[in-house]
Each structure stands twice: as C-alpha cells, then as structure tokens.
C-alpha cells in the first residue's frame, strides 16, 4: 500500500478525526517545510562553509546566545529559517526560540493567528562539527484569549497545555516525530520527492528496558537518589536489579529520545551541583516539555524526579530543569528514589 505523506496524514486528521484545526495543520506544514530547509543546510556541512562557530572566523570571538553558549553557524541559520517561514502565514501570534532572549513578535504587516510556537532550532549543536546527528525540537501552545501582543508571560504555560509537539533528527535519514495529543507518529523525509512520508504509526515505548542514557562524567555532582539509581544499574546481574544494563549517550537529546521511541530506554539529565546556579542542563520550554509530551503520548513517562514534567508551572522562558524520561517502569523507579 502507498504510504501517506505528512500532508495526507494531517488532512485525514483534520477531516476524519477532527483532531487538527485548519490553522494548526498549516502551522505543522510550515514547520515541516522549515525543517526540510534546515536538513538541507545541515547536510551541506563543510561544502557550504557551514561548520564552526557563528561570527568567529577563527578569531575566538563567536557570538554568544541567551544561554551563554557560543552559537554555531547552523544554530543561527536554523533559527532564521524557522522565523522567516513562520512569520507570514497568519497561523501564529508569536514565537520563542532557545536562541533568542525574548519572544519574537509577528510583524504588523502580516496576519496573526492564535498559536504560540516555541523551538530549539538546532539541538545537539556541539555535535555539528563531528558529523553526529542533530535535530530541531518544537512545541505549540494556544495564545491566551484576548491577547494580541503576546509577551513572555503568555508563553509560561505548563507542558500539559501543549496542543502539538515534535522533533526532527538529522541522522542517516531525516525523521520527523509528531504528536497532536493522539499518539506519536514518525515521518521519514523522501529526499527525491521532498515529502515527509509516514513510516511509523502509534509508536509505543516498551515499559521495561535494559538501556540507559546519561552523561556519566557528571556522576560526582549528582544528588544521592540519582547516584543510587545508576549504581544499581551498573551493578548488573549480581546487583539489586538482577540484570545487566547497557549505556548509550549521543549528547543530542533528539537522537537519544528517538532511540528510546524505537526500542525503549531511560534518558536522564538530572539536577547536579556542577553549576549551582542552574536547576539542570535542559530547557523546560524548548526541550523538556515537547519531549515529555511525545514520550507520554508513546506510553512512557517523564519526570523531574519530584514531579511530572508536564505539570511544572514555568517561571521563565529559558528556565532549566531536571529531566528523566522514557520507559515507564524505570522513570517511576528513579522518581520513587527521589521521594524516599
Ligand atoms: P547543545 O544543543 O547546546 O549542544 O546541547 C545539547 C543538549 O541540550 C541535549 O541535546 C543533550 O542531551 C545535552 O545537551 C548534552 O549535554 P552534555 O554536553 O552534558 O553531554
């Protein structure tokens, strides 16, 4: 049977299941087009001079983003592609990006819509120069009613208010993962046709797993519950868990989460004392919330160790948070250790 394209899938959702309003369908189509453009740029790499840091020309004066991190050229390009693609379609009230300090207003000359779009334009960008998978993560919220000029506070909605979330992985193939709150589906980019094609429907994360993902080099900075959990996994067959666990860490959340969707596992970036000013490494609005929505929709769980990620009331656009997500039984166990 011929496989459905993303467009066909969305039209079907709109008319047969009434799960996608027309404006949201347009929004997803536009974001997916931007993702194709980002994928093309990522694929060109050194051929187009796109590797390395933005604004440095080798002089060490790279531009620094709001996160205090040096921006890669592709970070800046991906951000511009998403902004430009989404400005004029009339489906958005405003945008926010991990790469920009405040919300990006829709210019007055364009029509406005009822959604807010948040994105991490290029997640895992420290992997760009070593030719390892990177990706784009996005989250969609409704703009509060009556608000015509959204400000930061209008974006500060808990993750359980997301109407859609997705991410793309630019790996050996480009894959777009999407949820509209009705299961999780994956679409692979057919490069000849230029279309995303539905390749996995209703992805389910196995509840049990023998694989974990964490940056082990931070172990000495972890809190006791996290240390206990990992110590038990490392003890393997002869330890309290009675089985051997394997470890994977790509250092691109998109690739690590995609692996968990494909074959299960637990991904953790806990709070640590490495930088006491930060409540974790990952960003709530651009990474934790969209990934938690996707993982829960696939039957997994997502916690800070203390509460469900999707129930966290955000306090800032660039807030960081502890993240533990993936196979349900493991996430529940690590959360229990935090409560004990
Ligand atoms: P960058 O986008 O700044 O490279 O960060 C990637 C990331 O936020 C996430 O995708 C990874 O899981 C995590 O950071 C990697 O962190 P480590 O550098 O500590 O491995």
Strand order of the largest sheet: 2-1-3-4-5-6-7-8
Number of E-state strands: 15
At the fourth level of CATH, the homologous superfamily of the largest domain is Fructose-1,6-Bisphosphatase, subunit A, domain 1
Helix and strand succession? HHHEEEEHEEEEEHEHEEHEEEH
Provide the structure class. Answer: alpha+beta
Largest sheet: 8 strands, mixed
Poorly predicted parts: none
- Terminal residue distance: 52 Å
Q: How would the global form be characterised?
A: globular
CATH architecture verdict of the largest domain = 2-Layer Sandwich
Proportion of β residues?
15-25%
Tally of contiguous helical segments: 8
**Number of domains in the coordinates?**
2
**Overall pLDDT:** 94
Bound ligands, each once: 1,6-di-O-phosphono-alpha-D-fructofuranose
What quaternary form is this? single chain
Task: Calculate Rg over CA atoms.
Answer: 20 Å
How would you summarize the topology of this molecule?
Blueprint: H1 6-16, H2 22-44, H3 73-87, E1 92-97, E2 104-105, E3 115-123, E4 134-142, H4 152-155, E5 164-170, E6 174-179, E7 184-190, E8 195-200, E9 211-213, H5 224-235, E10 246-247, H6 253-263, E11 266-269, E12 282-283, H7 284-297, E13 301-303, E14 320-321, E15 323-326, H8 328-339
Parallel strand pairs: 1-3, 9-10, 9-11
Antiparallel strand pairs: 1-2, 3-4, 4-5, 5-6, 6-7, 7-8, 11-15, 12-14, 13-15
Keywords:
2 domains; alpha+beta; binds 1,6-di-O-phosphono-alpha-D-fructofuranose; 340 residues; Fructose-1,6-Bisphosphatase, Chain A, domain 1; 8 helices; 30% helix; D-Maltodextrin-Binding Protein, domain 2; single chain
